[in-house]
Structure formats: structure tokens, C-alpha cells
DNA sequence: ATGAAAGCGCTAACAT
DNA sequence: ATGTTAGCGCTTTCAT
């Protein structure tokens, strides 16, 4: 391959404007100590030649790489893509991440890392050495992986933890999990439900716990019971099936269920159908995620919308500003909302009658 | 900001192994003229220190950047994300692209470019200068934009054109559009349909034409008419609504429709419902895309599955091999398939009776 | 088969 | 306010 060189470099601009490289550099980076007239002249040359600095060269000189790495769980992400489950997490991440990066001249680059692997550190370290990103966005469950956060902290790389509130290095951001679960449960209580079940996510994710907390809090406020009404899944369809079955086939089953993922809610719909329960007449369901498919289920699912794009956008801004500003101590909580659709309705009148 | 340096560099490895930088470089790049024993010794140091070369430095020295840029239409992509329509094109692109890139030590980086903008060239040029990718994957409609292909050809950057068969620079790949439309239409003919409509995509996409061609060819084989049975949309829901209405409210309307996108098929379902037509009893529908939502529509849509991941994967391989191998002259056509679901059924008996 | 020297495009540090 | 120098980590010459 022919040795490919940059077509227009800082040298060309400097020559064209009749100034030193350094002055051009100062203009590019909007640094002080350049007279307006000079700045204008250099900018004119830049525009004329259509010059854009090479991020590789910028990085080499000890400056920024203008790259932000978004780390996702390899196994889960690939499975979602392969199965075409309609999870649009990555899309929403790119929506918030890429656009905000672009506003600041940065790029977002998606990287997949194994969670369970014993060589997480090697994988991550290799990615960091290869790319030299200026920051990293950690999504669950990586955001709570001490090996990962520790390594980033050691290397002094700014990073954001989505779905983590633990103190320590890195910006912590959450998507209103507790309040979302609280709101969803309250809504069901308003509809007259007295026994409201919860299909929780796996323990490995803190947000699973937060949602349980919100659910319990709402029940507590209303003096309603929670005992025996919480079953845990792993966010996947199969686990949701089992959890829903466990909840709905017990004595005095719930008339409403909050599921911690769309897939588990989908499974709940199936189980209900199988048990001869009509949704929402006999059973109300609210899910978390609000992925595109929930508008097309039968009935369409009332769902908690997670502000993924907004949250990643905030994370990126924090990372980019990290050089200047001090880290905010507090956890940043971006609010979600409940989108009401057809899977929720007033509690059935015959509450308390065993149906299974 | 502290001037952040690479933690482990080629120098460290060279020192550890007691050899010159050059020898280490040769080992990294698997070059000849290194004795096995030497190679082993160096590799041991690399493993011990957990060394991975910086792609910025590799690029700077005139070698590869190990970056492949995937170019998508900015406006459409962002709209799909914002509306959360369930289009998983980008996901499938990443599935095929990222994984294949990773196999070869490359990274895929997604970039959005305006199609209609008059400064496409400036935008693209800036991205190329900043990132210096070793190759570019062009998706429709960029793959048929002469400004873009011309610029890449001029710069000598290997690129792939997805959904383009035009001769000229760059690897051309298609996803079996003609055959897919042919198969879908043939399937409807097998089911006894005599009047089969087509809701085509916009002219700006060549693949719209290829699909029309396949549809027409199948009709021709069976001696069936096509006149007045083709309406064009822009792939979006609204346009599908109009097109479906035009087809279904005419005299002697079709009993089956092939829609060039899921969104337009969704609209067709709505129009059918509105007109009192039951799908698939009165009307069969086959769509293109097979996005996740089509499993949840009422009824679930029979759809043409586009091998996006596989196609992008092939494109990436071609680009990476471009340095060694000669460009294949022929268009590479990756086959799709029809996934049968609930929106197709035998033609209604009362064919020919006006219903609208 | 190995090593030494030069340079990629850019910026930090140090002049002036 | 501007210019000069040195060097980032690596690969390409060019020696040996």
C-alpha cells in the first residue's frame, strides 16, 4: 500500500497564512494570545484549504484523542442483535452520545467487553492503549465492575457510570429507577389495584434493587403488602416467563405486575394468556424500557421510558468538561416517565377470588 | 490536563526483550526476517507487559489507522432513533461490522453525513482528515452519491457500496433485492393471488427499482398484470399510508401487496383495517426489512429478511483485504430470504369483487 | 536477520 | 503576541 499522507496539514495552512505552525495550532484550539486579525487570517486559510486536524497527530502530541469510548456488555449486546429482540439501547446510546460528542468535535466509539471473563482487565487495557480515548462511558453491568472502574481511575481517564450510585471515581448517573418504579406502582394503586407484583431484574444490577425499592415504597405508602409478590428474572424472556408464572399461579395472585424489562413483560403477557387472564381486564402490566416493540404487543404495553439518550448525552458532557470542571459529587439522576398504553386498567372487581 | 502518555510503549517492550524497536515492530506486524526464537522472546515481553500498539502512533508513522468508517444518512438515521421506530439497521450494521473488524484488529466507527446538503464533500472530507480511516462502508443512499464515491476514489481510500451495482471504484454489494421481491411475489402467486400490488421505495434508491423488477418478473412469469398496481412511497409510514390507500381503493384492487419497507407495510395494515379488510383473509401483505417490530404487529408480518450483518461483514473483509487482493469486478450479492408469518394466506375466493 | 536514523502531524514547553 | 525546539509512538527507509 502506498504510504498515505494527510492531504492538507497544519504546515500547508501555516505556509498559506504566512505564520508559524504554532499560531495555526493556537487558532485551531481557540487558545489565547492570538490577535483577532491574525486569527481571522489563519481561519481564512483553514477554510480555504478545507483543513481539519488529524486526531492521530493531535493525540500523539500529548493532546486529546477526541475519542470517547462507550463500553457495553459483549455477550448481552451481541445476543440482542442476533436475536433481533428490538432492544434499542445501543441506538439510543448513539443518539445521545454521538450527537453530543459531535457538538464538541469528539467521536463516540462503541466497544464490547466481556463482563464475566477473567481477562476483563486485559481486554479493556488493550482497548485503552489502542484507542487512547479521552473518556469512557460505562453502561451496566460494567458501571459497577470494580475491576473496570479501578483500572480507569488508575489510568486517570475520566469516565461515567450509568446506573451506579456508589461513591468513588467517575461520574455516577442514574435514570430515575426508584422514582419510575414508584410512579408506575402508584399509578396502579390509583387504578385500584391492591395486590401488585414485581418481576425484578438480576441482583448483579443495582438498578434492579432500586426499582424494587420504588415499588415497595409505593406499596408502603398505600398500606399494601409486598410479601411474596416479588420474583426475580434476568431481564430475558425465559426468566420472565418463570417469574410471571410463579406470581400468577400462587394463591391470591396479583392483579397487576411491574416488570423490570420489556422482555419479561412480554413473557408476562404470554403467561397471562395461557392462564386465561385477559390483559388489562384481569391483569395490568407495566414494563421498563419502552423499546419500540411495546407499541405493537397485544395489548400495547404501558411502559417506563428510560431517558437513555439524554443520560448518555449528559455523561459525555461531563467527561468532556472533566478537564476543566471539578467532578460533581452528587449522583446525576435523569428523570424517566411512564408512557400509558393498553396494558393497564382499573383493578378487576372480584379481587381476592382465586383464579388459578 | 496532565499530559497523558502511553503506559506501555514499544520502547518498554524492546528494553524488556533486549532488542531494537524495529524488531518489536516486526513481530507486532508479523513481518518476515525475524527468527522464531527471537519472535517468541519478543512476544513473551509483549504478553508480560500487556502491550498493545497505539493506533494513533501507527497511523502517524504512515501505516494503517485500523479504523473503518461506516457512513449513514444523518437525517434518516437520527429520525429513526428519535421516533424509536424499531429500525435496527445500525444495530445489524454494527453486528456484522464491529465483529468482523475486531477479528482483524480493526474498529468500526459510525459517522452520519447529510445527503442533501450542498457541503457533503466538506463534511466527508473533514471526517476523513480527522479519522484517516483505512476504509469506508457506504450505505444507501450515500453508496450512490457520486460526490461521495468520487471523493473516496480520488483519495485512494478503499470503500464498499452497499445497495449499488454501478460500475466504477469501490466494492459493490447488494442484498438480493430483485430475487427477494421475486420470491415474495412468487410466494403470493402460489397462494393463488392474481392481483398483486407493490408499494415501492423512492427512486433515489436503486434498490427500489430492483424490487419492482423482481415483482414484475414474477408477475410476468405467471402472466399476471402489473399495470396500475405499483405505488411509490419513501419507506416511511405516512407515504405507505397514501400508497396503500391508492392501491386498495381503486377498481379491482389487489388481494396482496408487497411493501418495500416495514413501515409502509404497517401503514398498509392500518389502511386495510380502515377499509374493513381483514389481513390475511382479504389481503396478504409481505414487507421488506424484517425489523423486530414485525413479529408483534396484528397479524405478524411475513417479511423479507435483509442480510445486513452478513453484507456489512463481507464489505469490511473486502476493504481490509483491499491492500493485498485485487478488487472483484463483479457485484457481490448476499441472499436474503422470506420469513413467513401471519400476514399471508391463500387468495380470497371472491377475487374481482369490488370492496371499496 | 537485526539495528539505527528519520519523520509522520501536531502541541507543550520554552524562547523572544 | 508570535516563533522555535523537542518529542509523542510507531514504521519506513536505509544500513549492517
Question: What is shown here, in short?
Answer:
Chains A, B: Keywords: DNA-binding, Transcription, Transcription regulation. 2 copies of one chain form a homodimer. By secondary structure, the first copy, chain A, is an alpha/beta fold.
Description:
The structure is a homodimer of 356-residue chains. The first copy, chain A, is built from 13 helices and twelve strands. By secondary structure, chain A is an alpha/beta fold. At the A-B interface, helix 4, helix 5, helix 6, strand 2 and helix 7 of A face helix 4, helix 5, helix 6, strand 2 and helix 7 of B. The structure holds a DNA duplex (16 and 16 nucleotides).
* N-C termini distance of chain A: 71 Å
Rounded mean pLDDT of chain A is 93
- Quaternary class: homodimer
Annotation, overall tally of beta strands of chain A: 12
Proportion of residues in β-strands of chain A: 5-15%
Helix- and strand-based class of chain A? Answer: alpha/beta
What's the CATH architecture name of the largest domain in chain A? 3-Layer(aba) Sandwich
What is the highest CATH level, the class of the largest domain in chain A?
A: Alpha Beta
Spans of chain A with pLDDT under 50 lasting ≥5 residues? 351-356
What would you give as the CATH superfamily of the largest domain in chain A?
Response regulator
Shape verdict of chain A:
elongated
Q: Treating each run of at least 4 consecutive H or I residues as one helix, how many helices of chain A?
A: 13
Query: Sheet bearing the most strands of chain A, described?
Result: 6 strands, parallel
Number of domains of chain A: 3
In percent, how helical is the residue content of chain A?
Answer: 40-55%
Q: Greatest chain-chain interface?
A: A-B, 62 and 61 residues
- CATH topology value of the largest domain in chain A: Rossmann fold
- Biggest sheet: strand arrangement of chain A: 2-1-3-4-5-11
Rg of Cα set of chain A: 25 Å
